[in-house]
Design a protein that fits this description.
- The complex is a heterodimer of chains A (421) and B (254).
- In chain A, 41% of the residues lie in helices and 10% in strands.
- Chain A has 421 residues and is of the alpha/beta class.
- In chain A, helix 7 runs parallel beside helix 8.
- The chains are: A alpha/beta (421), B alpha/beta (254).
Chain lengths: 421, 254
Amino acid sequence: MVNESMISKLRVLVEAAKYDVSCASSGVSRRSHAGQLGNAAAWGICHSFSEDGRCISLLKIMLTNHCMYDCAYCVNRRSNDVPRATFSVSELVELTIEFYRRNYIEGLFLSSGVVRNPDYTMERLVRVVKDLRQKHRFNGYIHLKSIPGASRELVDEAGLYADRLSVNVEIPNEQSLRMLAPEKDFKSVFTPMAYIQQGILQGKEDARRFRHALRFSPSGQSTQMIVGATPDSDRDILRLSSALYARPTMKRVYYSGYIHVNRYDTRLPVPATPPLVRENRLYQADWLLRYYYFQVDEIVDDSFPNLDLDIDPKLAWALRHPEFFPVDVNKACYEELLRVPGIGVKSAQRMVMARRFSSLGMQELKKIGVVVKKARYFIVAPGQDSRLLPDLGAARVRSLLSAPGAVRKAEGLQLKLCFES
Amino acid sequence: MRVFVHDGSFDGVLTAVFDAYSRRAFPDVLSREGEGLPLFCDEVHDVHTDEAKAGRVWRALQKKLSARSLASLGLCWFSEQPGAAGWIFRYVCKVVDSSVSIEGNWADKDVRTVLQWGRKVASERERLLQFLRFQKMADGVFFAAVEPLYNVLPLAVSHFRARFNDQVWLVYDVRRRYGFYYDRATVEEVSFPEPPEGLKGGWLDPSLSAKDERLFQDLWKTYFKSVAIRERLNVRLHKQNMPVRFWKYLVEKR
């Protein structure tokens, strides 16, 4: 049972699991039942934030960090000399429930190294979640990693207990994947993904026909790609993301800036710091795909295979397409408003609502939440007094927006009045 | 200058709206009982809170507003801001006067103020759900001390009741000296005229807590420390997401 010796074990297994990025607890609402512990909120709740700024919503942990695979990018590869530990099913179940009762966590994110064979490992994972759901009547959120190569029956059973299943792609290109992870190929990743998808769609179909149909992974599936471990460009990464989002059940693709956990492996680069800016730009591009009606080829294409690190992808698109601007904030449709740098989903929705009552000027835009400093080169509105992108030219707008302080200093504008902007 | 004096309740403000329309005279200033009156007031009207009148105003609002905007109005009241009565009064008047729904009019100052304060209070409630930490007491009761900026504890009770419906818990607002106690059946409001004994800065005395409470706190601290990736440290973001004012009540940041 849980005692002092758990502390060191917990440390080992958390260190092993922390490089997985996903921590979302959203996407499903699970009602509470009298006498049973827990529920799940559709919007997700973050219970803490670690010192790297990432949210802690779930108890993200491995059942064991023993692994028979030897993936170059992974801290748990079998050739690594790291402390190894394994939880028993009952220990992990008790830990989850006690943490949950104290409001530390929203649920469990369970993963595991592969021991013996994928099916053996998957079976043990399924036993933990089955115990939580059936023996302890736990209604909190459960995210379960599906082990690549696990058989269909086990994935089908896991989907009945988990709220979200996921398989990590890790490397966006099959050749690189084979080189870095000799035991894996795209088939071993995309087959379980397809099982999950079929399970979810089947579950939805059943729910339409039968009143008491069981829900299958109701919060869909997610995946993760490592950024910066291979020479793949942002175009390769985003094209794969976009293809994955086109599938009916893929909810999130996460990007994980590569951290050189295995310095000795010569197949991998040794960056001084993880590529955090690039990771951030990829997330911004991901949001453009999901909420801003952008197509992947508009964000990156063959002539611009990588995202611009100095400016965000929407601004980069805007500067490449001066013919689209200016946009009249009082007339443009919602989708057009979303294309303006400085206007986000929330402010665009508010603008569409507010302009039914009165015309919107720069003052109102500012109050609504538009980043006027950025948007003013791209819009026409009463009270707008700066010059627009088509007159100024892309290079000038870019220099004005990329690092305002630096530019002002370089041009010596901080003491002069500048009438053009 | 015309002044309406209300008793400081939500119904009081709604009754003030009713009185304003029935007297066909609108106040320049809305004042709370016990507050001093402003200079140069030529007319003072005392609003006698009347549930029937307030109910009529509320039903009129229900006809014209979406559930979401009604909720914003209520949340705005919980902000405990000195100006809240005035914002709500003017908002309600605008709703009544307009033939179309004004709830989306973000360009209007009063509408925006109500929506923005509604959001602020809602996010403070959300933070309560995030950062409240239970400590298990020796008798099996789960205890938590909180200190929210606005009076949002009553708004969060339903969440804890649903989620922890099979455990006995007590949530205590340190600043406002009251709390809610749930005994697996009903939630009761409890008030503490004096700060409870055995509580030091929101933390239970070790003699009062359960045997394994310390162990689980240590486990959680271990988890919190180990899950951070050293190469990615970002203290600014950490503080932005988890403001420092919550730290003294968080196991992992104590």
